[in-house]
């Protein structure tokens, strides 16, 4: 008797399912008294009202079951373009899911048969190691099957700032993902440098078992590592407080703008960034690297037009010394080599820790611009000062005990230099520049 009734009910449901919702509460969005519409963010509402409505035809941009959220157990019928009573999952479920009604909502749930016999050792997170982030993902249904709570997905640091988890679809499976920044120390990131060309970044994924019933499982713990090439750019992420400056450069034409970064490095590989507060050794080389992380090297090149040093943060300081001009070394007071410029998305300049007497800091200013590779006949040779932008970094100088001594010594050695000016002296032996007030 009971089963007969059930059968009859099923038949009724099926029959009813063939038609569109045509009730009055909630009202149809198309009803003249409603004039409603739907949005991805808020769902379906009557015009200027907080009244929920049910869409038909083209009123619902989502075109899936979320259009019918204002009804209990109705689904979006793609052919009828309305909410119908057939139990259909729309969008369709993935291969490890089944469509069923849960809490009066038509939902894709995990198919318990798909992962029968799955072991914890079978859980293999998928990883994407990009320069702008590391994405770690795990199948939601696999986690559910093994009794894990995918909502508890977290890394070493489980504070709210570090929990960038979200739902995604990878290879036609629903996954829970977390995105990490590729920055040293960020949310427990551990950085290890293996050699001069490779760097590893490691963190740990933790997923708790479902609470409630008997806890029979330990948390799922998985160490993951991404390998990166050590470059001018990545080395900045992998050092704690690199000295750097960034500026947004407008590009010619309609294709937006680009970030340019200026950083200082202590080695010719341009992969050992100088740190904020680090005291530069007297006479040591300083490698200035400029790059654009998001620029297309086929379309643009980066050109440094001018670089100069100043004892103060004022770019118009009287004691400024220009060491790159027109994109080339000035071969002046500060021994400088322009290694690469105007030919790629990077510029490399080797200069020197020059000392300005009485100051413990030196500010370096560089004016850089983008060259459009297709429009400039000889790439970057034209000087277009108008659209260049200025970058500024500050370097700390160690105590210069020998500066005075060198100053006098150099007065005898360097004939071309005007000692009488009593302002600027050059010590070629130490590649050191001294100015005194
Ligand atoms: C919806 O219902 C109303 C009244 O109940 C009826 O007049 C109308 O024809 C129905 N519309 C459709 C499309 O079935
Ligand atoms: C659930 O998975 C099993 C095993 O893969 C399969 O045989 C069954 O058809 C699936 N159920 C649904 C409703 O897709
Ligand atoms: C650096 O280490 C990586 C990974 O261990 C290796 O593939 C590469 O050849 C090494 N490079 C150098 C220059 O030693
Ligand atoms: C799953 O994890 C979330 C976030 O940690 C928590 O709020 C929720 O209570 C957990 N659910 C179960 C069943 O353990
Ligand atoms: C995972 O990394 C942690 C350090 O973050 C380490 O203590 C632990 O032994 C590692 N576990 C495995 C299985 O490698
Ligand atoms: C890393 O460096 C190697 C060797 O120089 C190169 O073949 C590879 O494409 C680089 N990888 C990335 C992601 O830049
Ligand atoms: C580069 O210049 C060419 C010719 O002036 C122009 O057609 C093109 O849009 C420019 N490219 C970009 C990316 O601005
Ligand atoms: C800059 O150097 C390049 C290559 O050494 C040379 O061709 C060019 O003429 C120089 N430009 C200026 C303005 O000195
Ligand atoms: C520009 O780059 C290309 C390819 O990397 C190289 O062959 C060429 O010598 C470079 N030109 C200059 C002026 O640096």
TrEMBL record:
Leader sequence residues: 1-18
Keywords associated with the record: Disulfide bond, Signal
UniProt cross-references to Pfam families, sorted A to Z: Zona_pellucida
SMART domains, alphabetized: ZP (SM00241)
InterPro entries membership: ZP-C, ZP-C_dom, ZP_dom
Domain of life: Eukaryota
Presence of the UniProt keyword Transcription in the record: no
Keyword Glycoprotein: no
Domain ZP: 128-387
Name assigned to this protein: ZP domain-containing protein
